[in-house]
TrEMBL record:
GO MF annotation: an example: arginine deiminase activity
Name this protein carries in UniProt: N-dimethylarginine dimethylaminohydrolase
A matching Pfam family: ADI
High-level lineage: Bacteria, Bacillati, Actinomycetota, Actinomycetes, Streptosporangiales
Keyword Cytoplasm: no
SUPFAM superfamilies membership: Pentein (SSF55909)
One GO-annotated biological process of the protein: L-arginine deiminase pathway
Keyword Hydrolase: yes
Keywords: Hydrolase
Length: 295
């Protein structure tokens, strides 16, 4: 039995799911969405193309960089599990398929048929998990969910809606968990997930793009964390999209020396991993990992 345990997004990482790297083109993503009858996903891809400098990753280079991430995880004694291959092009980004809160694994509820199909890649693992719960309404994806010791922060944007947040509140209560769910609201459309604009670097420190959040949400973050402001250029490069190996050690995309220095000044050891090919499409280190156990 796989005992789920995630009390914080920066607890020591012990067990994680990653997904296979596949070759795809931007045209292929649009065609995949059209084949699924997925107008919403097609519109989202079009909006992302307008907002970001997006290119399809070279699959050979992306696979090598992904392998480096897996190697770093294993070097830090993390058990790495692989999602089963399914008929979906962007399956590498496992984070969105679910999320663990305390001792429960919650199944995501994606809005698009393409992303729902990705979830079948985890079916072989569900039966081995200690507790699994589904949500009964709305839409929510794992990249919008961030677990702190006392709260669950949930981004409401292009992938998660108010109904999904309310469904998560009910599911948390039904599971007997004592967690406050706090919505994080954005200032503009085109925000795919919370983890593109805010992640935790330690229990006390967060990386944030302030311009992305409305005043109430930003004040909430300011009142709880010491925030390192990330520049618009760093946001576009997915620099916020980090993975904590523990409370004082953070996997960060290589090449962001300013952020590495800011982390080091706060007693956090940056662990740079070259991921620039993967992030040509808007998905980074955090997107590519789905934690099951943190201590």
């Amino acid at each position: 039995m796989l005992e789920i345990s995630v009390t914080s997004d920066v607890g020591r990482l012990r067990d994680v799911i990653v997904g296979p790297v596949k070759a795809f083109t931007l045209e292929g993503l649009v065609l995949e969405a059209e084949a699924d009858g997925d107008a919403g996903d097609r519109e989202l891809i079009t909006e992302l193309l307008a907002r970001y400098s997006i290119e399809a990753p070279d699959p050979t280079i992306a696979a090598k960089q992904h392998a480096q991430l897996v190697a770093v995880l294993e070097e830090h004694d993390v058990t790495v599990r692989w999602a089963d291959p399914v008929d979906c092009l962007t399956q590498m980004y496992t984070r969105d398929m679910g999320f663990a809160i305390d001792d429960v694994f919650f199944l995501a509820r994606p809005a698009t048929p393409t992303r729902r199909r990705e979830q079948s890649a985890l079916l072989s693992l569900h039966s081995r998990m200690s507790k699994v719960r589904a949500l009964d309404a709305g839409f929510i994806e794992g990249g919008d969910v961030l677990v702190t010791p006392s709260e669950v922060l949930v981004g409401i944007g292009d992938s998660t809606n108010e109904e999904g947040v309310e469904a998560l509140r009910r599911a948390i209560a039904d599971a007997g968990l004592s967690r406050e769910v706090v919505p994080m609201r954005f200032t503009h459309r085109g925000v795919v997930h919370l983890d593109v604009h805010f992640t935790l670097a330690s229990p006390e420190v967060g990386l944030v793009s302030p311009a992305a959040f409305d005043a109430e949400s930003l004040d909430h973050l300011k009142n709880r964390f010491e925030l390192i402001t990330v520049t618009p250029q760093e946001v576009r490069a997915l620099a916020v999209n980090t993975v904590a190996l523990g409370p004082d050690r953070l996997i960060i995309q290589a090449g962001h020396e300013r952020l590495e220095a800011e982390l080091s000044r706060r007693g956090i050891t940056p662990v740079p991993v070259e991921f620039s090919e993967v992030t040509r499409f808007p998905g980074g280190l955090h997107c590519a990992t789905l934690p099951l156990v943190r201590e």
